[in-house]
Amino acid sequence: MNTTADIENLLSRLTLGDRKALSQLYDKTSAKLFGVCLRVLNDRAAAEDALQDTFVKVWKRADRYAANGLSPMTWLITIARNTAIDSLRRRKTAGEDLSEADAVPSAGPTPEAAAIASSEAARIGACMDTLEPDRRAAVRGAYLEGQTYADLAKVHDVTLNTMRTWLRRSLEKLRECLSQ
Amino acid sequence: MSTETTAERDGAMRAAEYMLHLMPSADRKDFEATIAWDPEVRAEVVFWNEHFAALADEVVPVTPPATLKRTIEAELFADIGNTSSLTSKLRLWRTAAIGMAAVAAAAAFMAFLPMFTTPGGGPGTQIGGGAIHTADIAAQDASLRVIAVYQADTGELKLNRTAGAAPSQRDLELWAIIGDDAPVSLGVLPAGQQVVISVPEKLRGDFQMATLAISEEPVGGSPTGAPTGAVLAAGALATF
Fold first, then answer.
1. Binary contact (B53, A23; C-beta < 8 A)
2. Residues of chain B contacting residue A36, judged by C-beta atoms under 8 Å apart
3. How far apart are alpha carbons A146 and A168 in whole angstroms?
4. First vs last C-alpha separation in chain A
5. Of A34, A123, A144, the CB nearest to B64
6. What is the DSSP-derived secondary structure letter of residue B223?
7. Whole-prediction pTM value?
8. What is the DSSP string of B5-18?
9. pLDDT tens profile A114-165
10. How far does Cα B60 stand from its chain's mean position?
């Protein structure tokens, strides 16, 4: 199994230009990250492009990993997800200026991240279960499929403002639950 | 949570919207600027990312096509031995190295104290009148570390290897990168712990601004004149 320490070690080797480390990181994580890209893009060719971009970014930005405050697998998933969502939005609204698909701009480590990642990860499932089923589906749609307010409003057949309210209340509830 | 202000809760909600990619892209850019300077907002973004990443556990892993790995490696490494990509990598190193300069100066002083104080005389007696520049050429995991001291008036570069050695059947080669120029070889590092090399005349003009890097190369040094192996360590010269 991939431990956090294994992935962290590989990331640190990337900063030294270690190509073997990239190959090993790919072997360990590409199936998970490809799954994340596919879930968002729902298109194999587009997901392959997104996965390729993801690993190119990981190679080029590995030096920023240490300072961004995220645990290693979260960092990789966040880059894959952001890359896939940017690709999805680009396909939808051609020409719009998209933000850099960076996880979190780096500046100062936050040691809490590792603690959240390791011991509290399971909480999100329990907290999601406290939401109404349609609210829960909307939050999951936003995270896992990269849906916008407009997409979600359409899928759930409510107005845009209702969807904004749904998500805001759901996120407030989640935050309170996750912070307990 | 009961003591939380409305502003704090708004900040947390904005962080969640950012994490979920629900902001318009212009707002997203603005918010990234906020993240960069506000540690509390940054912590909120980390909070949401870490918790939600666990939702990805339910995503079924799918093995990508076997050719994709080669495609990625070809995109990244098609330019093996190409100095421009190496230079850009070294530029990253150099940025990181600037923060280390003060540490390097102190480390260099400690590492070279014995060298300067023998034989006889007090510390610094052999340094001479020229400006001294130092670099801490270190791997990030500290597996290789060479402290360099450059004496501008004599063009002498003193190297003190405090950790690490060449991989088996390989040599360590020292490179100088000045500005945007391609790396120039300063030769294969001898096995000894302390060595003094003479910097070529034509490099001396701007040598105090160089970044020094060590790559691993075939025995005898790079066959191409440009680095061909992995860059193991790098550090920028700074005025001592």
1. no
2. 56, 59
3. 16
4. 30
5. A34
6. S
7. 0.58
8. -HHHHHHHHHHHHH
9. 555 545 557 888 999 999 999 999 999 999 999 999 999 999 999 999 999 9
10. 37
CA B218 to chain centre: 22
Distance CA B137, CA B100 (A): 10
Backbone angles phi, psi at B31, to 5 degrees: -65, -35
Q: Does B53 touch chain A (CB under 8 A)?
A: yes
Residues A37, A80: contact at Cβ < 8 Å?
yes
**Residue B27's closest chain A neighbor by CA?**
A99
Residue with token string 């860059």: B231
Count of CB pairs separated by less than 8 Å, A with B: 175
Name every chain A residue with its beta carbon within 8 A of the beta carbon of B49.
Answer: 70, 74, 78, 103-104
Separation CA A65–CA A75 (nearest Å): 8
**Residue A104 is nearest to which of B49, B59, B140, comparing CB atoms?**
B49
Both tokens of B34, joined, read 């906020």
Closest CA to A78 of A33, A140, A125, A145: A33
Q: What residue type is A75 in one-letter code?
A: W
Write down the pLDDT at residue B190: 78
* Shortest CA distance from A120: residue in chain B: B51
> Is the Cβ pair A48, B232 closer than 8 Å?
no
